[in-house]
Structure of Cys-loop ligand-gated ion channel:
Amino acid sequence: MMLKGILWGIAALIYLCSPELYAQYVVDTSVSINKIYGVNTVDQTYKVDGYLVTSWYEPDTTYRPASGERVYENHQAEQLMNAGMWVPAFEFINIIGKRQTANMRLVITADGRVTYNERFQGLFTTEMDFRQFPFDHQIFELIMEPFSYEQAQLVFGSARIDIETLDNQSLSEWQMQGEPEARVSRSDYAHLQSGALSHFSRLTISIEASRKPDYYLWRFILPLSLILVASWAVFWIEGFSERLMTSFTMMLTVVAYTFYTSSLLPRLPYTTLIERMVIMGYVSIFAAILVIVFVKIREEKGRPVKHVIPRCRAIFPTLFLIAMSMLIGVNSGL
Amino acid sequence: MMLKGILWGIAALIYLCSPELYAQYVVDTSVSINKIYGVNTVDQTYKVDGYLVTSWYEPDTTYRPASGERVYENHQAEQLMNAGMWVPAFEFINIIGKRQTANMRLVITADGRVTYNERFQGLFTTEMDFRQFPFDHQIFELIMEPFSYEQAQLVFGSARIDIETLDNQSLSEWQMQGEPEARVSRSDYAHLQSGALSHFSRLTISIEASRKPDYYLWRFILPLSLILVASWAVFWIEGFSERLMTSFTMMLTVVAYTFYTSSLLPRLPYTTLIERMVIMGYVSIFAAILVIVFVKIREEKGRPVKHVIPRCRAIFPTLFLIAMSMLIGVNSGL
Amino acid sequence: MMLKGILWGIAALIYLCSPELYAQYVVDTSVSINKIYGVNTVDQTYKVDGYLVTSWYEPDTTYRPASGERVYENHQAEQLMNAGMWVPAFEFINIIGKRQTANMRLVITADGRVTYNERFQGLFTTEMDFRQFPFDHQIFELIMEPFSYEQAQLVFGSARIDIETLDNQSLSEWQMQGEPEARVSRSDYAHLQSGALSHFSRLTISIEASRKPDYYLWRFILPLSLILVASWAVFWIEGFSERLMTSFTMMLTVVAYTFYTSSLLPRLPYTTLIERMVIMGYVSIFAAILVIVFVKIREEKGRPVKHVIPRCRAIFPTLFLIAMSMLIGVNSGL
Amino acid sequence: MMLKGILWGIAALIYLCSPELYAQYVVDTSVSINKIYGVNTVDQTYKVDGYLVTSWYEPDTTYRPASGERVYENHQAEQLMNAGMWVPAFEFINIIGKRQTANMRLVITADGRVTYNERFQGLFTTEMDFRQFPFDHQIFELIMEPFSYEQAQLVFGSARIDIETLDNQSLSEWQMQGEPEARVSRSDYAHLQSGALSHFSRLTISIEASRKPDYYLWRFILPLSLILVASWAVFWIEGFSERLMTSFTMMLTVVAYTFYTSSLLPRLPYTTLIERMVIMGYVSIFAAILVIVFVKIREEKGRPVKHVIPRCRAIFPTLFLIAMSMLIGVNSGL
Amino acid sequence: MMLKGILWGIAALIYLCSPELYAQYVVDTSVSINKIYGVNTVDQTYKVDGYLVTSWYEPDTTYRPASGERVYENHQAEQLMNAGMWVPAFEFINIIGKRQTANMRLVITADGRVTYNERFQGLFTTEMDFRQFPFDHQIFELIMEPFSYEQAQLVFGSARIDIETLDNQSLSEWQMQGEPEARVSRSDYAHLQSGALSHFSRLTISIEASRKPDYYLWRFILPLSLILVASWAVFWIEGFSERLMTSFTMMLTVVAYTFYTSSLLPRLPYTTLIERMVIMGYVSIFAAILVIVFVKIREEKGRPVKHVIPRCRAIFPTLFLIAMSMLIGVNSGL
């Protein structure tokens, strides 16, 4: 009697540690990614094109061929599934809308192994942090679960992830970092049954990549830096009107830059590194205008301040360099 | 006889108060929202991705399994529905177009409980008020009704709403306020039958959220404020031509700002808070030009007005601050 | 014999006046509009989301229920139609592409009444006249005909149109004028049969609406007016170079305005009211430049014209006001 | 024997001249165009919405009704075609993607006449020549062939084309020229069979239309002309710096014009009339700058050239008028 | 015994060299391209519209007609495939999403030849190198493989590629170079089976084309060159303020050019030829500003440098020409 209880306890322990021992179906998966593209910073989405291969042992012998293997493509595979063959529906948790399936295939072997293979394309979403943009790196994820079958019926077994090298890596905007990872875990839902949690097996694929900042360096950071440096020339100009009008022209140039940026950068509730640089540009030119007007007011009142303008020739570049190095050094949240 | 009448009256009263006692089917619902995104201010629309779980008791025993529960996915579920199983079509009243259903599932238990579950994505519309933009808050709604079955046949029972925390809340543009709400009510239609009202049970899900204004503060309100403040420098410039040309440059800068804004802001029949700020900018610079030309005319006529320009150095900032505080204080309809 | 002829004549007369007496099917319609949105001025299109309810008496008793009514939704209704039940296809004549049908329903009563109900969304087109833009009003139309059945087989009977008040009318760009109208008429086609006209019953739904011009007033007409008024300041400036450069800056500002407008306004083969205003702006500044150069030439030749510039200070505003009032008063075709 | 040969020769001759005598099916067509819109100059595409009516004699009596005619709509028509009724698939050769079919109908008469009718919408492509843009005229074409049946089995018989007058012609950008034309011809393909040509009957519908240039005249050519004319004012300005800065401002204005144009005009490998005008603007202002600097250099070297600038006041307008008239007169390929 | 081994060795050798001798099905292909368009530089994609003809010998006689050939179109062909007829699914490896099939056809001859023909449209991707843009040339590829059948079952036999001359080659942006090529090879996959490679037959179609640079020459390179040349005029201007303000105006003009470019050019992680030209423009104007300020500083300190500015009149054009010729001569990766 006692022995029986101990045996049951061991069984329960084994179950908690390795649910695949008890699940009705253990599904091995292999995902191969062709291309990740169309990264949309505003909605935090990206498109993935790839292959999904899932495979399990089917005890039911109804659809097994006498020998070898039998291949069913597209409509023929659908007919089989409609006729009642067990092929679970998988869903990507972090997909937006529906995935497009260009082709699908069902292979059944004489010894009961079923392999379902499809080429899919979908729009996925994940948390993206653009605070270091354009020096950011992101983790592109695919999170997959069976749509209907809980952990008691279906668990993910071995998982494998491949990245195709179809695209010339030296030409694309993103550079993969480290190895892609496939992880099996469990997720719990409360909304499916009232008063009870549902447990689903979950497969998470993560690909870490860093952005190549070249485009933004050459087309954005370099010219903006030159404009800001050029704006300091205002302190060598003589005459109040000339100084002011030159500053206003610089201001207009930076405003124009802002418009250009807004088509380039995401509309985020926080500021990216590149935006902080633009804000610095604004503030710097505005400070120059304040200095110029202040000097003018003092002159009008008969108390000229000779040294302010010449000193600014050194102060502005110094402050700018300090601010720049802080910007690069600190990952501040502003 | 009399007693019977009283009993009928009580029954009618109960019916009016609690239609679910009499309806043929009582449908419990549970909606789980993954993501609200793609808020379009012009058409007043937003996209919702989520799960819809509906559940009811089916007295007809035709499709019940002998024991436990039976799961039908996608095409298999469709076949069952085509064969005649009662699964009501639900429609979102405030949807635009058709909802996309990535996966669907029908679960039937031996004791007659039917659960229909789908993942959906759709474009929804609701009244949005952008008068306080970018400091606005909106109520995102999903209004659902059975497409064909009136209240006598189908009423919504218990309703539940969950919001997934998949997305990092600190990174998105909207911040949820309070708890999401699910409310069951009744709606009446006149266009379905001539001379009679049709009564439908209605489920309304409301999610209140406020916009994080950071993007607009840093990229719009701050630089525009700096430009407006800088425009007052015109009153320190001497010489009519210089004053005028500087004012014109400022005008051009604000015009450039307007173009930028029009890609940022909705095209609404009323003015948003941010637009009123731009209009103030226009009017302020125009007033400065009027003052400058007025002073010039008086000079030409030999009646110079010495004090106007210096006084403007104080009057313009003061008026601007008053107007700004009114703008923030008052929710005027302009 | 004679009597018979007279009777036939009367019958023919009745037929001509009231075709529904003789048509095989009289279809009553009821259209309920949820939302009209996405008005595209270039293609002259708009999107409509609504319900279409059609109803007729079916003499064939095959599909009638024994008693009460029977409801068929979506796929079940399609199966019935495929099996041979007569449900006519309706088409919107002025639709672009195909309408999307989110849900559909077929109700058949024991006494032979068939009601077909669908929720539809489509892109419609109609003649739009933007000459008075942004003070224009348009008639949004839905023109419906049976796709296959001529007047001898199918005529529209009673027609009803409802506009949902789901959207807050005070917030949208269009304001409905008067009552929406549903009109039944006849249309004839020559391309279906060689050498013979085909007659179809036609249902026309018209909704008249006027645009709220507030957005264009605040964001376009007011700033442009201020710029034009400011451009007259050029006549107070002294010195040829200053005058010319200020005029050029104004010209550049109005050019910038044109770019802004082109994203705002339709690209039409005629000029809208707002465009005529921009053209006036161009021509006015160009005329100022001509005057300035003319005065300069006369000066160079030693015949200075003292009074031209001062007079322009009065002439330009006067001409502008006259042109403006003409623009508003006259609906010229330019 | 000889006679037989001659008879065969005659038969072959008749066959070559009139293949429809021998083809198994002669298909009469009638196309009715509702709307041509969405002309995309870059991809050389346009959208067409219309009706396609095809009709032929079917010797097989399987599907003929006993008397009168029988109408099959949409799904019912599809069922008939799936069951094996001969309805050939037609394809538009110059379509992009797939055509959308909103409704389709099959009418079979007791005497064997089959009429297939559909409403279609598609994106079509044709050679477009924009060298005279915006004074160009284009030929919109629809080229149709049977997808599978060669000339021996199917030839087009009579062809008819109608243009609906639904759209108010005075309001659209294109004006139809002459009568639309429907032409039957033959096309040969080598890629279907190795070593043999396949012959298909082809129906070509051509609609010639010319663009109304009003929009481009008022919004582009007029203001650009005014700017160019205004740029000549630079020759009346005195002082090297003023001349140069005014010229630079004009250059900036024309650059701004180029940006505006690029959203307005196609990105073509050849220059359109309107682009040649912009290039003339560039070159003209650049020439003025060259002249100004040349005069300056001569002055510095102590050999002033008094007459160059005054002469340019006449030379530039003259050259511009000559270039303009050449541009309009000659259809050069540049 | 020994003989047998040798024979086997020879057989294996033949197999390795010519797998089609042993494959169950040898599929001959013929691809005809109508149009390549919509080249998207950012995602490195293009759209292809064409016909795919595949043909093989089917030993199974079930579906053979008694004599001649039998044609099945669209739905009828699908029914045959659903019924079990062997028609392999092909997939384009480098497609994005799913291809659209407007029409398809199955032809079966009495002697067992099966021909599958479809018209397809799809979005394809390939490596594109824009370093020489707009003087680049690209290779447009279509890579096709059977979706399910490995080399043992299916190999590609003869392959043929045709390019339709429907489009007027003189009007499109791309000019085909040399002959298009169709190549059969083998590809191996590891992700389909654990621990084993799968071998598939692969058909690669390559079309080499070079871009016609006319648009970019006239609209971009010419005006930018003129602006840069004009910017050297700054060295003839006298007075520090005038020099600086003119330089700033030029800087603003080039900044405006950058905005214009960013809508014209891809956002790539490397710089294109045209971008390097813009960067040169920036740097050149910035260098001029540095020189101007340097001269000013020396003047202020009482050590004027007379010869710097006049020498720059020659140095800047010289350096520019050297840089330009280097840019054109060298295909540097920057």
